[in-house]
Amino acid sequence: MAFMCYRVLPQREMSIEEFKAWLKQFDANRDGRISREELQQALRSLHAWFAWWKAREGVKEADADRNGLVDKEEIGRLVGYAQKRLHMKINDYDYY
C-alpha cells in the first residue's frame, strides 16, 4: 500500500487554475487525465462522504467522449459538476 502526501487542499474559493492544480496532484499515472479512482482519492482528501459515488457521478457527467476519463478538454465540465453537486466555489478568474 502506497501513502501519498497531498500538499494543497482547496480553499473556500479558488480559480479554475487552482482547481486544476489541486486535481493534478491526484493524477497518479501523470497522463493528464483524471480517472474515477483518481477523482475518488481527491474527494477523500476533502473527507467527502460517499466519495466513490460522487467520483462515479463526476466522471459520468464530465466525460463527454465516454472513454472513462476526464480529459483536459472536459475539465470545464468537471468544474461545473464540482460547483453544482459538490458546492465548491470555483471562479473563472485568478486572484492576482
From TrEMBL:
Pfam families: EF-hand_5. Residues 14-49 form the EF-hand domain. The keyword Chloroplast does not apply. Gene3D superfamilies: EF-hand. The keyword Repeat applies. InterPro entries: Centrin_CML-like (IPR050145), EF-hand-dom_pair (IPR011992), EF_Hand_1_Ca_BS (IPR018247), EF_hand_dom (IPR002048). SMART domains: EFh (SM00054). It comes from the Eukaryota. Keywords: Calcium, Repeat. GO terms for molecular function: calcium ion binding. This is Probable calcium-binding protein CML18. It comes from Ananas comosus. The gene is LOC109706737.
